[in-house]
Amino acid sequence: MRIDIITVSPELIKSPFEYSIIKRAIDKNLVEVHFHDLRTYALNDYGKIDDYQFGGGAGMVLMIEPIDKCISKLKAERTYDEVIYMTPDAPTLNQQIANTLSLKENIIILCGHYKGVDQRVRDLFITKEVSIGDYVLSGGELGAAVLCDTIIRLIPGVLGDETSALTDSFQDNLLSPPVYTRPSEYKGLKVPDILLSGNFPKIEDWRNEQSFERTKKIRPDLLED
Fold it and tell me: Deepest of 20, 63, 144, 214, by most Cβ within 10 A of its Cβ?
């Protein structure tokens, strides 16, 4: 998979890709991540990429021309399955979206900034819009990092145990069950006996029951879905 991220602040987003699971995925050539500074495609030597919005109002808007130049250059080099815009006024990221995107070969992620992008960018170039929650950030960079993490960890070979991602919360619209490790008792709190029994069919039944009960208590909306 190849991911191209278009951003006003490339230094802000690079750090999450230099550590842990994502870095290992990049080092193993399971994914390529490229960052593109939108100011490289600015309209003048002063790096102009935004302007005041028509009709007045507070906040600057990213202009269409620099974004068009960047996306057009990338599309001239390869075919992209999705061009994604990170914006709070979009469908909220969930596990199903991550699962679908993890099967793609090439995607572009455009990070919003300031007041957003000229609407014509969304009309002409964007194939999918994603939000990471009902709140506003200073830019789409942190959201893009979250999206990439959810996608990359699902690529075969990225995790040490490929079945791990399949048992994550939300994969089957249920929250994950409680998990325990050594010691078996700590400050009077014991690991449930069933987990120490070695009876794996019953352990699986216990985990399923716990997943259902936790979901019912914490996120009943998932059961409605």
Answer: 144
